[in-house]
Amino acid sequence: MTDFPSLPTDFVFGASSASYQIEGAVDEDGRGRSVWDTFCDVPGKVANGDTGAVACDHYHRYAQDVGLLRDLGVDSYRFSIAWPRILPAGTGEVNQAGLDFYDRLVDELLAAGIAPAATLFHWDTPQALEDAGGWTGRDIAEHFAAYASVVGERLGDRVARWMTLNEPNVVTMLGYALDVHAPGRGLGYEALPVAHHLLLGHGLAVQALRSAGAHEIGIASNHAPVWPASDSDADREAAQVYDNLWNWTFADPVLLGRYPVEGMEQGFPTYRDGDLETIHQPLDWFGVNYYNPASIGAPGAGSATEELGGVEVPAGLPFENRPLAGYERTDFNWPIVPEALAELVRTLRGRYAAALPPVYVTESGCSYHDADPVDGRVADPKRIAYHDAHLRALAGEIADGADVRGYFAWSATDNFEWAEGYKERFGLVHVDYETLVRTPKDSYHWYRDLIAHTRARG
């Protein structure tokens, strides 16, 4: 493909990953257990009994992976820091060996000319804190801020961008309301206070990072445009409930200092006056993770339902997910709707106006069950088409005045895809999980050429 999306010459091209999904070395150098270690030990929770114990062995092979990123030409690499690798018990004594690893990674990235972009929390809560209640309790927000201080003081002078949380809605809904992700609490509606504690932790962590001298602080927030399944009042009302729950409960407090439903905060048992002011910290940028929209209707009104992001939604909710017909799908069965990313950007601009800081797409990508390499090549034309279409959608919005400054492809390498184990492959680089050999896919070479083409235009 020689016809590339037309993006600004200073547009930031990146690639993303997360600690538990790639690092391995779960029992090495003083790392404590995380909720994902525990979850993987429960039979039936993860496909094929897979675990992140070895994953891509990035902990030992980070220099090789940075070399691949350097050759790819990305401006920035988004990675996450494993909280239990820094504070094995979640609080208390600092594990210097853990800090040393990220110190080496950051220096390796800088030497390669790549701006480090660090996420403080990408779902691997220390198990010791979960045993004390995890995100259901208010105290964890203070512990998270203390962790942010430790990391910020060590790396704040060299990390170019910071994210406090990755997808707090997914943690709340899939990890606490349902029993699909770690810690698998299955609390239903009783999980809603988790949302408040995560957001409070975000606000306190922003303050802690700034006090440590860190700059360029944001969040990686998952968003899905919500489409009513029909024009009926019932479907529209159900879609609004879902939209508030999935999107605006997690963005409005951060960007506007209020919840989307008036008085909602009073329903959180641990809410205190001043919490929303703490959550509503000034941000330097806002990260958007986008994969697909959701079609939502009133419960029982449709003839067919669909899993929500690969998850079977229980009965008894005021909404249900409906099939989104007419779109191609990834091998993960997610619909491919690049125009919905453009719609999301417009929605954010309209909803938040001047309160919306510059936007980065901190994740977008697709899983295809790629064939093993043949003669050193992995052909993945559908992944190329996915990223091409989504970047074209962004280019159109940027031309219309949207301040979207970068795109981080999910993911840099194939990795452990949470409850799906290793069967789903999102990477620009193929990983053979038996030998751990890395093979750049055709999409890697396409992305490299797109970056070079964009720079050459400058």
From TrEMBL:
Recorded GO CC terms: cytosol
Residues the record marks as active site: 167 (proton donor), 363 (nucleophile)
Keyword vocabulary terms for this entry: Carbohydrate metabolism, Cellulose degradation, Glycosidase, Hydrolase, Polysaccharide degradation
Biological process according to GO: cellulose catabolic process
E.C. no: 3.2.1.21
Catalysis: reaction(s): Hydrolysis of terminal, non-reducing beta-D-glucosyl residues with release of beta-D-glucose
Record carries keyword Hydrolase: yes
Pfam families with a match to the protein in the record: Glyco_hydro_1
An annotated Gene Ontology molecular function: beta-glucosidase activity
Stored PANTHER family: GLYCOSYL HYDROLASE, LP05116P
Similarity-based family: Belongs to the glycosyl hydrolase 1 family.
Protein name: Beta-glucosidase
UniProt source species: Knoellia koreensis
